[in-house]
Amino acid sequence: MNLDAGGWGLAVFAALIVGLSKTGVPGIGMLFVAIFANLMPTRQASGFVLPLLLCGDLVAVYTYRQHTEWKHLWRLFPWTAAGVGLGALALGRLDNRQAQLLVGGIILALVTLHLLRKFGAARGESSAPGPVLAPTVGVLAGFTTLVANAAGSLMAIYLLAMRLPKLAFVGTSSVFFLLLNLFKVPFMVGLGLITLDSLRFNLLLAPVVLAGAWFGRWVLPRVSQTWFERLALFFSAAAGLKLLIG
User: Fold this and answer.
1) Cα 22 to Cα 242: distance, rounded to the nearest angstrom
2) Number of independent structural domains in the chain
3) What's the rounded Cα separation, in Å, for the pair 175 and 67?
4) pLDDT digits (tens, 9 = 90+) for 87-103
5) I need a labelling partner for 74 at 20 to 30 A (CA). Which of 149, 162, 171, 173 fits?
6) Structural domain harbouring 57
7) Burial of 192 (0-12, 13-18, 19+ CB in 10 A)
8) Confidence (pTM)
């Protein structure tokens, strides 16, 4: 890409957010998705961002792997793989706007469901997640991550529903996304969305991603559990609205 100074500034800022979203503040991933989508076509941005996400995933897994709760991952993996396959089929059939509307609607629906569940729990009603939650989130996460790299918001809502403490939240999420993003690589290469040219540009931004990830490690212990959950929910809802508004 031929970027001017302002474009490079946005790219560096977005790469910093990639790292921070992996290890410190969940749900802010849609910020870098939106930035890269403004620097290049949305479809191309989906593949371009993937190697940067993997850089952040590696730091997050190395840092928080001991807090991973695998029982939640085993429930998601088969359904997520199916969702990735559906996303690969849809990517060639949906235009950018259709994909944004679909993913935004899915995210806002799940945010609403989570808030209703919390409201019911406050009134003393049963709020245990139903048996269909994991299959639903798994398929939707696989689909949305391939179409728009928007699965972070869905995973945040799922893990909040599981009532995980913040370290278990980040540890479980980091392993999930490392494996998911590795699984996506062949699809993105096959679709022509990861190329040698895009990888060369990724190498320039990778150190910024790593810096953001290490900064996130400093941020996380300083955020309370309550605010951690509020931030995750807020940024998830904001991501959904941004996609719907366009």
Assistant:
1) 20
2) 1
3) 10
4) 888 877 777 777 777 77
5) 149
6) 5-245
7) exposed
8) 0.78
